[in-house]
Amino acid sequence: MDVPHLFWPPLWESLAASLALTFAVLFLWSRWRRFDRSRSATWYLRGFQYLLSGDPDGAIEVVTKVASSGALEAYFTLGALYRRKGELERAIQLHRNLLRSPGLDLATRRAALGELGRDYRQGALWTESAAALEQACAPDGADTPVAPTLREELRDVYLAAGRLADAARCQEALGAAGHDRLGAHLWSEAAGACLAAGDAEGAAAATEAAIRACPDSGHALLARAAVRAAAGDGRAAREDALAAAEAEPWAAGLVFDWLAAAPGMTGEGLREALDTWLGRHPGEPRASLARARLLRAEGKNGEASGALREILVRAPAFLEARRELGRLVLEAGIEGELRQQYRELLASLGADSAIGRCARCRQPARELRWRCPACGAWDWLSAGAPPGTPAEDLTL
Predict the structure, then answer these.
(1) Cα(151)–Cα(148) distance, rounded to whole angstroms?
(2) Where are the domains of the chain?
(3) Do 176-264 and 266-371+386-396 show the same overall fold?
């Protein structure tokens, strides 16, 4: 009698039932998790729809329901919604609470600190914002890389707080030396601040850092010219200034205005340098104005008047050139010419005397600076337009 044969069927049936139950549990578990993710996605979609419809309160209510399940992404979304709505205290409190959560991994902690820094930044609390972002960018024992966006955020906070050298160092940490135009701008501004504070050594170090960041930056070269002029090296200062105008012709007005105002920079040599530069860049209005002023200072009023008239033919609304010509006419006492200049001045006042339009905010500017006067962008005007060009014709 084959006894074992009598017992095998019940054993196989039991094993098959166990396997079937296991697969059923796994299937139901996977379906539940899929349903849970789908439900979260549905809530997020609803929140996005509320945002598009201009109802941040509705979006906050929806995302709060998702956050109650413990989803970290939802907490970050909720904090951003509070910040967008201007409820900074709630955003700050939420991110502080998140940072108190036990067991946060480094990446999540850095992200939460970054969000907290953005909360403070929106409230113009620069010290608190910098402190949070500094913690977010602090190195850890494993040398985990810091997200560039966090360093950029910290750099911008330093800049807004007037901590120019810190902003420059933060930009330097992003690792773009040699072709980092922004780094050159920041170090150049830091050099100017050091000079204003009487820190000649700090100014010299900052200008060298600016040149390292971007050797062909006009801003860096002009900053070094200012440092050298302050140290009494007028010849080297003039060479640096002319190199700055050569590197970035659009900023020639800044360079030649500085040359005309800096002690020891004026004289026959400067006019000759201007003539040489204008031979390579003919018609640049501000350089031509600087040359006309030098001619007038030398007593060559006829040549100065002719140069100013040439400028105004190209740029009728260049008020600084028209003002300079008006002074010459007044000194000469030519009554008929004075009336004519007055009529032309009145006509030019109705023109748009913008010198360029920002490539980022598209606002016309009437003052030449390294940064856009409207939005603060650097390198906003890559090619200067003659003053007096109608704003609608200005393109970059």
Answers:
(1) 5
(2) 176-264, 266-371+386-396
(3) yes
DSSP 8-state symbol, 86: T
What class, spelled out in words, does domain 176-264 have in CATH? mainly alpha
CA–CA separation, 27 vs 40, rounded Å? 20
Q: How far is CA 19 from CA 10, 78, 95, 112, in A?
A: 14, 44, 47, 45
Is-contact 82 96, C-beta < 8 A?
no
Q: How far apart are CA 227 and CA 209, in angstroms?
A: 13
Question: How far is the CA of 384 from the CAs of 166, 219, 244, 313, 389, in angstroms?
Answer: 31, 15, 15, 17, 10
Mean pLDDT along residues 259-285: 79
Structure tokens at 239: 């060479």
- pLDDT at residue 268, as a whole number: 62
> Would the pLDDT of 149 be above 80?
yes
Any idea which residue has 């801003």 for tokens?
A: 219
The torsion region of residue 267 among left (phi > 0), alpha (psi -120 to 50) and beta comes to: left
Which residue matches tokens 């006419």?
A: 329
Helix axes 72-85, 56-67, angle to 10 degrees: 160
Residue 362, pLDDT score? 83
- The closest of 318, 322, 326 to 384, measured between CA atoms, is 318
255 close to 241: Cβ distance less than 8 angstroms:
yes
pTM of the predicted model as reported, rounded to 2 decimal places: 0.71
3-state secondary structure (DSSP) of residue 142? coil
Residue type at position 52: L
Inter-residue contact 382 to 250 (CB < 8 Å): yes
Q: Which of the residue ranges 3-17, 51-65, 126-140, 149-163 would you say has the lowest mean pLDDT?
A: 3-17
Tokens representing 388 are 């007096």
CATH class of the structural domain 266-371+386-396: mainly alpha
- Determine the length of the chain: 396
For 241, residues 6+ apart whose C-beta sits below 8 A from its C-beta are 221, 222, 225, 255, 258, 259, 265
| Per-residue pLDDT reduced to its tens digit, 324-347 | 887 777 776 665 565 565 555 545
394, 385 contact by CB (below 8 A):
yes
Only one residue has tokens 């530069």, namely: 277
